[in-house]
Design a protein that fits this description.
It is globular, with a radius of gyration of 29 Å. The termini are far apart. It has 853 residues and is α/β, with parallel strands linked by helices. Strands 1, 2, 5, 6, 7, 8, 9, 10, 13 and 14 form a 10-stranded mixed β-sheet that branches. Strands 17-16-15-18-19-20 form a 6-stranded parallel β-sheet, with helices on both faces. It has a 4-stranded antiparallel β-sheet with strand order 21-22-26-25, with no helix packed on it.
Amino acid sequence: MQPIRTFNVSPSLPQRLEPLRKLAYNLHWDWNVETKDLFRRLDPDLWESSRHNPVLMLGTISQARLSEVVEDEGFLAQMDRSARQLEDYLQERTWYQKQRGQKQKEYYAYFSAEFGLVDCLPIYSGGLGVLAGDHLKSASDLGLPLVGVGLLYQQGYFAQYLNADGWQQERYPINDFYNMPLHLERNPDGSELRIAVDYPGRIVYARVWRVQVGSVPLYMLDTNIEPNNAYDQDITDQLYGGDIDMRIHQEIMLGIGGVRMLKALGYNVTAYHMNEGHAAFSALERIRILIQEEGLSYTEARQVVASSNIFTTHTPVPAGIDLFSPDKVLHYLGRYAEIFGLNKDQFLALGRENTGDLSGPFSMAVLALKTATFSNGVAQLHGVVSRQMFKGLWQNVPVEEVPITAITNGVHARSCVSKSTQELYDRYLGPSWSSAATDNPLWERMDAIPDEELWRNHERCRLDMVLYVRERLVKHLRDRGASPSEIASAQEVLDPNVLTIGFARRFATYKRATLWMRDVERIRRLLLANKDRKLQFVISGKAHPKDIPGKELIRDINHFIEEQGLEKQIVFVPNYDIHIARLMVAGCDVWLNNPRRPREASGTSGMKAAMNGLPNLSVLDGWWDEADYVRTGWAIGHGEMYDDPNYQDEIEANALYDILEKEVVPLFYDRDVDGLPRRWIDKMKDAIQLNCPFFNTARMVREYAERAYFPASDRYHTLTVDNYAPAKELAHWKDNLTAHWYDIKIKDVNVSSEADIKVNQTVNVKAKIDLATLTNDDVQVELYQGAIDASGDIINGVPVVMDYQGEDKDGLGIYTADVVYNTSGLQGLSLRVVPKHKHLSSPYEPRLIVWAQ
């Protein structure tokens, strides 16, 4: 029976408890120990059963319990403290205010297909989403004028359970938005705020929900409304669900709908950040608005958009990039080509690396790279991989100079460090440890934390994890209809006093979740041989519903456990989520990660473990390649690359066993007369002191602000003054530059020295260049010097800007420079011409370069 009217019923609270409502609807409670304890204190059982959802708690808690706490002075005092802390947090003078002062009004929009913020908002699948959530939290801590943009999924990502054969099954619980910490955005007259997005033959509508993340609003679109048809209502149904048509529907809604939503909300965004290529269609919509509403030409509009666009790639392999067929792109987005005045091949070229391949697919990553002037990978090694992957977009630019930089990921400290460990750091390091930079003197106080206190705290965290794993496993077995003996056995899994290895991540095959199982006898020996030096594993993670090889890895692990009779030493914890992750990174003793280098873009779970004092045991990939892997853990291998994956698995599995047998296990069980593993505790302290301040989103978001947001926002303001006059001038300059660039001729390069020179000897170089119709103001002439590799190419070249000396009698530009080589060996020299303009983000923005032949 359909209702004739609906009502949104809010929790009814006594007036004295009204502060709970504001606290519940701001996710600041997730990283504020006082507030989280307050809701746990209100009703511990309901807190757990609600998946730590204070809004649902307030809507279902008994009036009798509310009447009790109204009379509880201790509870009221804690509530008032929490309310003051939130108010103080929202009002405090921030890092951003100190950096930017009273500069012009600006907003930064952060687009992401998923956001992992809290356990009770299951709209994320893994590391990308949790990173996006942590990005918003640190943006709030720093006071950035940032807004998040995403999709609100009715079913989110799937809930995982295992059948009797250990095979992953999926459930899709329905998210009840009205009992989540979400606000439905409304118009001034009280009606729902809705935006409209054009799809072929129809318009799709979406309403807007907001989740408040400290001072940062995250706005999410929801299409599950009338008058949308059933298919369109499902656009925001499942994260990464459906087929390729549903994927392009979702990415149109995220990118194009996201831009329209921000406009409807009244934001004048000055910098747009695309977190992965899913939101790249936002660039097309921004260009359309500037053409149709501001009267700019296509090239002028594209210049404004690119100058204020930022793109972060998380993908280390081409297979991870969203690709759409040309026909599909033209079907869904062909109207943009008409608006832009482009033919179909010119339009499709926006998403093609090889624009001459007229049948090639349309790449979302390429579209993002071509419509942004700041692009980055998420670790230094990932930056190297990304430059290699996308070097074809910058023809003739040395790969190390391809303008894709790197900003190493971090994690939000107050979200991932356990409560008791945070309190320990607060006592001995001071409350600012969670955002303190690497050079802050407070890190010198790590030695002030007593070894025994740090160790006993960690043992409590391990016990908490073991008890939770047992409870979770028992529930899973009961839901599966397991026998009483299986359930009784599950209540005894793991030993809270045994060295515990944690492995939890997405079950993609390159992460090699079963590498530790390669030699059955060696792993059995480690697990069982010495009753005084035992080892155990806690494993968790999901495979994508369509990833059959990933599901097979999960089944193989569960078969191995059963076949080897290792149910008490190895546990696979179903339905990995933020809550399980936080327990594991605090309660395990070592964090294991063994991907195929260099396919791990970053790997943030290991950072979370390190912040809790866990040493990492990992292949040198992602973030671990940058860490001090000697003092804060152990490295599997030395960063080697292999052509034969089977040989690589053999070598690295043996290295893993050797490290466990000879280093990890002995160090953990080496106890002094007080029963303390002093040298292990030293490694724990190093893990905290050396990793916490750097692999932290406080540092990461500051870096994004200083290197990307501030410059992009300033460029936007610069280019849009006087009715976009600077943008128009720059766009026309680029058109002229492109039309005449290949008329440039390097006529003569005269080098003063012979082939044999001495170290630190000055070499004078003079060049004559025919700039044709261009001028010296349009170009920068550089010498390019460096060592010569085995194939005869300059490697790790260094540019030296040449000085313009005017023109000779033939109208050729004369340029001079001196170069010096400070190392011996075979060295090389070349000369190049690159564009120059005061409004360019870099010389490589126009993708033009001329080299001496």
